[in-house]
Amino acid sequence: MKRPRMARIYPASGLAGLLFVLTAIWYAAATQGNAAAYLLLFVLAAVFLVSIPHTLLNLVGLKATAESVKPAFAGSEVSLPVEILNQSTVGRHGIELSVLGCKGQPVRINRIPAGQATRVTLRFAASKRGQHQMGMLRLECVYPLGFLRAYRSVTTRQQYLVYPRPAGDPNLPLESASRSENKPQPELGEGDDFAGVRPYILGESQRHIDWKAVARGHELMTKQFSTDTRGSLCFELAAARFPDVEDQLSQLTLWVIEAERERRAYGLRLPTGEIAPSFGQAHFHQCLRALALF
Amino acid sequence: MKAPRHKDTRIPRRPFLWLAAALLFTLPPMFGALSSWVPAIFLIALAAKFWMEPRGYRLRSLVWKLLLGATALVCIFVSYGSIKGIEPGVSLIAILMSLKILEAHTGREFQVMAMVAWILCLCGFFLSQDLSIAVCLLTAFTLVLVALIQFHSGSSAAFWPPVRTACKLLAQALPIIAALFLFFPRIATGFRFQIVQSRLSATGFGDQLSPGSISSLAKSTRVAFRAEFPDGRIPSPAAMYWRGAVLRQCNGLEWRALEEPASIPRFSQHVPESEGIRQWITIEPYGGHWMFALDWPATPVTGTTLAPGHCLWSAQAIRKAKRYEVTSFPKNRKEELHPRERKILLEVPARISPAVWQLVQSWKATDPSPRAVLRTALQFFRTQHFRYSLSPGEYQNNDLDEFLFHRRLGFCEHYAAAFATLMRLAGVPARVVVGYLGGEYNELGRFFLVREADTHAWCEVWLEDSGWVRVDPTSVVAPDRVNLGLNLFLERRAASGQVQSGQSQLARTLARSRIFAEARLAWQAVNYAWDTRVLSFDSETQKSFLGEIGIRSNGPLPLIGWSFAIASGLIVIYAGWMGLFTRVGGDRVKTLYKQFCRKAARLGVHNKPSEGPSDFANRAARLLPNESDRIRRISDAYITARYSASATPVVTEELAKEVSRFAKTRLRPVKLKT
To answer: For helices B37-52 and B13-25, what crossing angle results, to 10°?
Structure first.
């Protein structure tokens, strides 16, 4: 593995003030021949000089690891969980973490004790839909005196997905237009009404296991629910009345969100492929992913 | 969506507490020197901030800020009569800081406040350079440092770590401070702004001696100067007459220096045969021109004139601590007295009462020789019930009669003035010398501390055969004053009930207790070091220091270069040293296991990538039967340390021990037959 680069240093906003104060003290000391003022000048200058290695070394041994990012809608914020591990033998103070090239308030971590890790969430604006490569992370600090800023960049291989911005008409398109089956049929799956149990299949979500039955000594069973579907929908780009593809995708995104909220089965028919009508979290994200990557 | 860039609309509490503490420490010099409303307003602003901050109030309106600023300016002008000069300037800075405190609300402004606090430290040093003040101001400096560190390490951080970091920074800075202090050139800038020094008006020690002028000083505990004897030749305290000014214009009980000594051409120098007493004297700033040395100084100091009467007169008023070397010769050489000078030294005031004349004539009638008159005069003071007192009361119109014949109560100044006047009436050239007598020896610092309370006045008379001779009439009236020093003398008198002492019994017992006395000595020694090593280190001292260690300085630039080269060298050393200690530790358990695998590989058992630790251990134990137990132990310890929830440092230590013992003796792997 590549050794992390040495931190670099550049003046922070406080440095101008310090230089002004140093010059003022020097001028006053020189004109008055005041030895005590000279002493003050040297103490200040020396403390500043000594603070340089403190600032630089404050970033040594910090390892920032970006964790997997949840997809976000364009126009909202991406939340990037980052774990910062202090591998050194001393505590680290006043660390600021930001994403290079993304505007936004850096996250401040006051203290990371030696050998411990902290998790923070970086937020930055998600601007365009699609799959994005995470930029560089930037570790910064002005500790201890605030006259200098040390920074180090950390590369991450994290990718994140941005769904299209939901926009357009919130009313779902007419059912008749895209109804696939006429007769309402109870569908087993995720719904509101209890419709019995069946044996648990390994790998299934554990959310619907009948734990009470397990407590009674029965085998693992999955509870089944049914929804009264008023008929499933299938969204198409053409159904959105916008000339621009991006706007159409936005409209479809909004419909997917609305349909999911109403717990109705919905599907997508895109030129790149088709997703059969269904609902539920997995299906929801599958649809949005298809829209994002379109 | 857009978040404001500066969201911090509030200054975190704890850093502000530190800063407030720092600001309090910048106050002491202000209280002494500025109009008292300035520090009062400063304190009020600070207190108000603590009240306003949690409620979200602050000084917002620009109109109010300008109005308050203008009012402050007017107030400063009214109380000082000017806005130029150091006191008004410092007052202005303090007031502006108060306003800043009231309006500050962002992190950026916190940094600004810290800067202004440092400027206030600087201002403090202009008001006073006393060691106690310096301690205050350097404490304030450190507290600002702590406040900054706390601010930048996050407000929720604990209480002590910032203090520790600040102390660490200062400790590491010490060598750099020393290097900069010694080598950084003291450039005298051409454009020198003159500071109106109203406070350092010459206190007491002036060019004239009038009744009461010295006794007012006798109660002052201020340090006048300190003296060291580098050759170890120390005169007895009773003979330590520190010469200051020579007064030659007689007006009865009042004497004056004749004229500006600098205007008189210097006497020809000639060094007497007897060995001199070398002294290093560090004089405290007092605003006057006289410099002090033991009787009689011979070598003039740079920047001073050896004025007639063998006293040192500095061309510039002494406004900062100054250290000089001077050699004195206890035996004065015989010198000629010019007739014109003799005439000056015999001048007496016109208003001398017949009674005084009669007294002098009666002395001359018995024996007219100067020595005899001198003896008779001393006899007169000894036998006629003269008493010595710090507070003899006032004598109207320099009334010599009243003093000599009626009240007969006086301080050294009265005796010296009266005696010298009487000598002149008797035709003996006489003058009054004002200076100090004695001093307090500090064993720790090996120096004598002379206070303003040690001020003394004595006479010198001219005798044909031996030149100027010192006569101290006070020694006749109150011999103990000369032998014991004033403080001890007063203490004895107080003990015997002669004088009422202002101090309480407790304070006196405390002052005499051993610990207190030692602490006082130590404090004085540090004070002396501060004055001699720090305050009096000016460009000349620096030049001679650099010359001593063999650096020929040509211009300030190489010196600046050198001092920063030293500083950056030290910084690099620190960085390396700190880097060593903060080296990334990594995972010790993993490192140890890798070490074990390397050792096993050397013995021919290679860890396969697909193999877990226990599989590898089984295989290795099979291949290395001699070490099988150890291999199992290592493997178990590794698995516990790495994967078990109950991993303790003990397990890691065990692992380290076993790994280091593993394969100490060279073993060959056993070839297994398949």
So the answer is: 170
